[in-house]
Fold:
Amino acid sequence: MGSVSEKDRGSWGSKIAFIFAASGSAIGLGSIWRFPIMVGTNGGAIFVFAYILAVILIGFTVMLAELTIGRHTQKNPVGAFNSIKPHTPWKAVGYMGVATGVFILSYYSVVAGWALGYLYKTITGVFRGEVSWELSDHVFAHFAANPIEVLICLFIIIGLTTFVISKGVREGIERWSKVLMPLLFALIISLAIRALTLRGAGTGISFYLKPDFAKLNANILFFAVGQAFFSLSLGMGTMMTYGSYISKKDNLVSSAGWVCFSDSLVAFLAGIIIFPTLFATPGINPEGFKAEIGLMFQVLPLIISKIPGGYIFGVLFFMLLLVAALTSTISLLEVPTAFLVDERKWKRRKAAIFIGALSFLLGIPSALSNGGVSFLTRLGVMVKMDLIFGNIMLAVGAFFICIFLAYSWGVSNALKEIASGNKIFKVKPIWVFNIKFLAPFAVITILIFIIGIAR
Structure:
């Protein structure tokens, strides 16, 4: 087993390249699709307020922790834990993170495939003219239950993701992030401007930006922290892996801050797109929605059929959704690929193709569980996958990352790594308190809450 070459392991060409790539990982369907749904079902602007607070106090804390461990060790999650605490059970947390990433990629790519399918349907004019809820619901149900269509879309998404990862850090992730992220921001800003110009948009803006503190309760706080946490790709080693490619000269604190800001900005803009549009569309009650994974694909055709310029709006929106999904699938595939490159000394291309193929096979049950195969549909495979891996396993992973840094590796060692490239850490006392006490408490509370809901 020879050493891993620089070409296979890789590094970022610049700090901005890392910020683009890491922001792309964080910004995905959770930010653009799930965030507005959570706002609509949890009190509107008061949820936005709680979410921003959660990103600042919890999200930033865990983000910086993962980046610090990653850069210090220059390893994937398994290698990182084993490098700091060799021959201890801690590396099991790394293995858990790698496995979680593969399983999330498998079903997340199904939803990304839906975005691809709906982009095609929108371009070909399926939603032109007046669209009723019955028609929109029928189109989605028929599409999601069509085994051939969903599997083709899943294959294309996995194929594109594998291609990017096989090209490496600079030639693959960095190059494509530099294209995809500016495109994503351009699309979401243009759509937000369009939504603000709709007649009746003011009511939606009021609902979205004027908090009613009388609505604040424990449920909103729990969901806000959970949404902030999960949307930032924390808890499975993605940011640890991305952090392993960061130069010692770069400022980890500002890097973590920029990623949190970028993710929150896109989520915020997604709400600016959705709520003015919803309130400007007769017969739609945004507070009546539930956070179901297919809802965006049922609701958006209604919206684009009833507003001026709806065809262009729809094409751009599903293009945006697809771009956001791809930047996340890329990061999800990078974690297990980096593991095979670092720990098993595989060539990057071989590792990417192997994990890509495995993810496709694992994704088939999820793809067929929305009406494609009755047995899998009754089991609710995709919903269970999201609950187990997209919620519970991420929370478990993040809890152990906090405990590892604070009480095993030690805060003093982490601060030494942070000091490289960042001599002045103004919020150090706050971060130390958060990583030791606030973040672990918040994550374990969310975990208990999620398990309670599941039961």
Summary: The chain has one domain: 6-454.
